[in-house]
Amino acid sequence: MASLSSNSSTVRTIKTYAVIPKTNPQAPRQLHLSAWDLGMLTAHYIQKGLLFANPPDLSVEQIVERLRSSLEEALFHFYPLSGRLRLDMCDGGGVTCHVELGCAGNGAEFVHAVADGIGIADVVADGQDLPKFLREFFPLHQFVNFDGCTDPLLAVQVTELIDGIFVGCSFNHVLGDGTSFWHFFNAWAEIARCKAAGKEVVLSRPPLHDRWFIGGYGEPPIKLPYSSPAEFIVRSSQPLLREKMFHFSAESLANLKIRANQECDKDTISTFQALSALMWRCITRARCIPQEQITGYKLAIQNRTRLQPPLMPNYFGNSINAIRTTTTAGELLDNNLSWAAWLVHQLINDHTYCAIRDLVHKYMDNPRVYNTHMSDIPIVMMISSPRFDMYSCDFGWGKALAVRSGSSNKFDGKLMAFPGWNGDGSIDLEVCLLPEYMAVLEKDEEFLAVVSAPIEFGVLLGTSGKKV
């Protein structure tokens, strides 16, 4: 295994391909975007990837070809990902945005790269901050360029390591949320497995691309009140952050849930709500903000099953809202865990079909693009989900060793929840904080009483060895 000193190593690009699928006769010429999609126009790409050990029976060339050819077929089914975003000026002012399909140069970007001197142990970073070189494992760090049909909506990078490979995916957030991202990733892996086994490709979950629009506002497209992309594209610089992965075992989470419910004599607080409350409290304490200061918990919440009727499970697009609850730092820390957990519980419980419709109605009355990086108060924001099916993305050479993210959309107080590797209900939480806050969190007694030791490295690799 390489040492962590390899953080100074660079990632070299070997070759870049344009992956262009064959024409799908079901694809329209353009795809209008919903209110949930348009709100993401200023967001960075979703950047998530999977770490694998080297397959013993495949060369790097074979791996790259399998991934490239299966991506081509995946794009046939997920055809919006091979299009381009396009702005149109409206008569009388304002702009509309749609996905243009079938224009010249459509397709995804596929990068084959090598990370010199970097191994699996460096990527996993046992007990250490996540390495800065991870950002080099993902293409397309920049914002979308609206000057024309030039920016791919999907880019993939396959990076060779000393003893493994990393498959990183950059996915334009306008096209979909985390549910859609992992839907696509799993379908891509399913196609690769079928092709490797010589089987006919029949997707178990074919995507549905028809967008959801609320009634009473006429036909799409939705008109945005801007005259130029410069009015809504925000290119803020990312602060210096520490990023670290923390593991919470199923047993530890079960005890945390019991504690939260016993403290308030209820049985309705979920594991996720208890963990959210814990992190909100501990990070607020680490920030040392005044007692009278308002602090918030924010959650990217899924709408699909809350609509009436619910969206089809294979709906491909965005269907999330960012919801928030607030209190003062003093109230949050002077009360017990269950008090904070109940605030989170009520926030989620109140996000009903009627609440969703009200939010969409308000948006349609005043369409806009969200600034995803700014808040008027100190917040802790939870995104992603331990329910996402990340470790089923098997391309034909076995289960991934870890999930990691790129540098996009990160800010102080951002939390990303991933399912634990062993699939027993454990959760891995990526925490992004300013360095001075992370240093305090790492010593917080309430936090340390719940966080668990990471999965042993030998368990991941199927051998005995040091911890990861």
Describe the overall structure.
- The chain starts with 10 loop residues before the first strand and ends in a 7-residue tail after the last helix.
- 43% of the residues are buried.
- Helix 5 packs across helix 8 and helix 6 crosses helix 8.
- A hairpin with a 3-residue loop joins strand 7 and strand 8.
- It folds into two domains: 228 residues, Chloramphenicol acetyltransferase-like domain (Chloramphenicol Acetyltransferase, 2-Layer Sandwich); 220 residues, Chloramphenicol acetyltransferase-like domain (Chloramphenicol Acetyltransferase).
- The longest helix has 19 residues.
- It has a six-stranded mixed β-sheet. A six-stranded mixed β-sheet has the order 9-15-14-12-10-11.
- It has twelve helices and 15 strands.
- The chain is α+β, with helices and mostly antiparallel strands and 468 residues long.
Structural class, please? Answer: alpha+beta
Strand arrangement within the widest β-sheet reads 1-6-7-8-3-13
Return the domain count: 2
The CATH topology of the largest domain is given as Chloramphenicol Acetyltransferase
Architecture per CATH nomenclature, i.e. the level-2 architecture of the largest domain: 2-Layer Sandwich
Along the chain, the helix and strand elements come as EEHEHEEEHEEHEHHEEHHHEEEEHHH
Percent in helix: 25-40%
Strand content: 15-25%
Rg, Å, rounded: 22 Å
Taken from the alpha-carbon principal axes, the silhouette is globular
Would you tell me the overall average pLDDT? 91
Low-confidence stretches: 1-7, 464-468
CATH superfamily of the largest domain: Chloramphenicol acetyltransferase-like domain
Q: Please report the distance between the alpha carbons of the first and last residues.
A: 12 Å
Number of H- or I-type helical stretches: 12
